[in-house]
């Protein structure tokens, strides 16, 4: 018991020294490796309520996309996160529109879904503008602004419509969580590029 405890302590000491030496062996002016870039993207100070930010989830989601995870530099990382965000937002909006075509939904839900459909139009346009601003113009300040509008004003109008009509939809609340995740992560990268 005791000896296994001690050996596990020795093991962790050994592993941390390996980790530290690998950090020290990295040449200081060498380009950051992807895991470091993802950490930058997930270290956000731009979310309205920091308590809602899940760093672990952010890393997990970004790591699970091969294109994002292998981004060689910050501009490409921003572009790849925005692109992933565009596809996620598009899917959520498709879900909203598909639900709207169903005949047997309550009128309060229908009202809220229509508002969310409009919200997602604006969210999608903001992500698309940010994409062009980063890729074509290297205008990181405008991209940052558009990404922040997407997860604040535009997203809020959908959430308020759901709340005021007293309806809930799990897929839409999950969708909102990812609007925040992708826009805040891309924004964190743009903020670092806008120097
Ligand atoms: C954050 O995300 C991780 C990974 O998905 C999850 O295990 C954890 O429960 C989440 N934490 C909170 C506070 O939601
Ligand atoms: C959005 O992305 C998240 C994270 O990869 C995923 O779990 C979710 O299913 C996606 N949502 C849609 C509607 O594609």
What's the helix and strand layout?
Elements (H helix, E strand, L loop, with lengths): L1 H24 L8 H9 L12 H9 L2 H4 L4 H27 L6 H29 L4 H25 L5 H24 L2
Helix pairs in contact: 2-3, 5-6, 5-8, 6-7, 7-8
Keywords: Signal
Protein name: PMEI domain-containing protein
Residues in β-strands, percent: under 5%
The 3D shape can be described as elongated
Number of strands: 0
- The CATH top-level class label: Mainly Alpha
Please identify the structural class as seen in this structure: mainly alpha
Distance between the termini: 54 Å
What is the CA-based Rg, rounded?
Answer: 21 Å
CATH superfamily: Invertase/pectin methylesterase inhibitor family protein
Instruction: Fill in the CATH topology.
Output: Butyryl-CoA Dehydrogenase, subunit A, domain 3
Query: What's the order of the H and E elements?
Result: HHHHHHHH
Q: Give the second-level CATH assignment, the architecture.
A: Up-down Bundle
> How helical, in percent, are the residues?
over 70%
Q: Which molecules other than protein and nucleic acid are bound?
A: 2-acetamido-2-deoxy-beta-D-glucopyranose
Average pLDDT, all residues: 87
**Main sheet specs:** none
The number of helices is: 8
Unreliable stretches: 13-30
Work out the count of structural domains.
Answer: 1
